[in-house]
Amino acid sequence: MAFKDNRHIYIGLGTMALLMGGAFLAFRLSRSNSKSRTHGRNGIAVDLSVFDSPDMPGSGNCMDRRLIAMLHNLSVKTGYPIFSWINSGARSEAHNRKVGGVRNSSHKMPACKAVDIGASSRSIRNNLVMAARDVGFKRIGVGNTFVHLDVDEGKSQYVAWGYPSGRPAEVNPFV
């Protein structure tokens, strides 16, 4: 008799438990989906397709995560839309040859440790170079229309160079 008198309480508690469980499950699922769009330990959201080799869609997925974090820091430091200015990221062997890249380019897959960032003026290039040094880049190339940044620790560190290769950098942050 006591159970029949309190049935509405038990039905209410059961319904509430189901709703709370469903809400918790929905919350956990939404958090796991957002993690799939972020990269690096700090959860930086980046569209990796900006790094794709033009002849290999999806190849930007190979990009070094430390490089991505450093590019994010560069974007924050300068206020520039760095990820919108990427000219070259990952490169297939064929694309690297097509653009005249060196044989051991840090852009090439599977390393994917380099980017070229378009820079429309000398002032922007110089700002990028100095800020890149400040966020930890140790390899910087300076062209007439772009800045090359890489994190390839298998190559000389604290170096800056100009393009075409062999030309001194317009600005060298390491001297």
Q: What can you see in these coordinates?
A:
With 175 residues, this protein is an alpha+beta fold. 38% of the residues lie in helices and 14% in strands. It is built from 5 helices and 7 strands; from the N terminus they run H-H-E-E-H-E-H-E-H-E-E-E. The protein has helices at residues 2-5, 7-35, 65-78, 93-98, 122-135; strands spanning 38-39, 44-45, 86-88, 114-118, 139-142, 146-150, 159-162. A 5-stranded mixed β-sheet has the order 3-4-6-5-7, with helices on one face. A two-stranded antiparallel sheet has the order 1-2. Strand 1 (38-39) and strand 2 (44-45) form a beta hairpin. The radius of gyration is 25 Å and the shape is elongated. Mean pLDDT is 87; it is low at 32-41.
**Which class of secondary structure composition applies to the elements?**
alpha+beta
Order of helices and strands: HHEEHEHEHEEE
Task: Write out the strand line-up for the largest beta sheet, numbering strands in chain order.
Answer: 3-4-6-5-7
In terms of DSSP E residues, the strand content is 5-15%
Contiguous helical run count: 5
Here the CATH topology of the largest domain equals Muramoyl-pentapeptide Carboxypeptidase, domain 2
CATH architecture of the largest domain: 2-Layer Sandwich
Q: What's the CATH class of the largest domain, please?
A: Alpha Beta
Helix content: 25-40%
Q: How many E strands?
A: 7
- Mean pLDDT level: 87
Short characterization:
Helix content is 38%, strand content 14%.
